[in-house]
Amino acid sequence: MLKLEDNSKRGRPDIIHFALMEALSTPLFMKGILHVYVHTINDKLITIADNLRIPKSYFRFEGLMVNLFRDKVVKSEEGKVLLEISDGTLASLLDTIKPDKVVGLSTTGVQGTAEKAVTENLADDCMFVIGGFPRGHFSENTTRFLSLTYSISEIALEAHVVIARILYECEKLLEKGVHHESYEKRGKIRT
Prior knowledge:
alpha/beta, 22% strand
C-alpha cells in the first residue's frame, strides 16, 4: 500500500461499509429523500438503489462488493437493480444529478456546526460530499467542485460520525417543517 499513489486514501473499504450502514439506516433514506452515491479514487461511481439494505456483517459486505466490481451490477432475486458500478468522475456525477450546491465536509473547512451546515444549504438542491478515506483531505479535483466546505468539529471525525450528524440535522429540519416545500419540489438530499 505504501508504494501506491495517494496511499492514505486507499485500502479501507471498512470505512465505506460503516458509512453506508449509517446513511442507509436513516429515515431519510428509507423515505426516499436521501440518495447515496460512492465515488472511488479510481473514478468508479457506485449508485445505491432506494431502500437498499446492505449486509451488517463486513465479510458479507465484502462479498457483495466483489460481486459488484466483477459483474458491474447486483440485482435482487426479483431482478431489481440494487447496486450498479460504472466508470465516472465526480464531475460526471454532478452533471447527471445537477445539484444547486455541493457542500464538502472536512477539517479544512469553515468552522461551524452540523446544524449550520445543513440550515444554510438545505433550501437548495444540495449534495454533501464526505471523504471516506482514513487520512488526508479532498483532492484538488474534488475541491474545485465544492461550493463551500464546513468543518463541524474542532477534532477530526470519522466519516460515519459526520454522516450521522449531518443527516440528523436534516431530519430535524424536516420534523420542524423547515424547507418542507423545497423537499417536495426537489425531493432529494444527496451524500
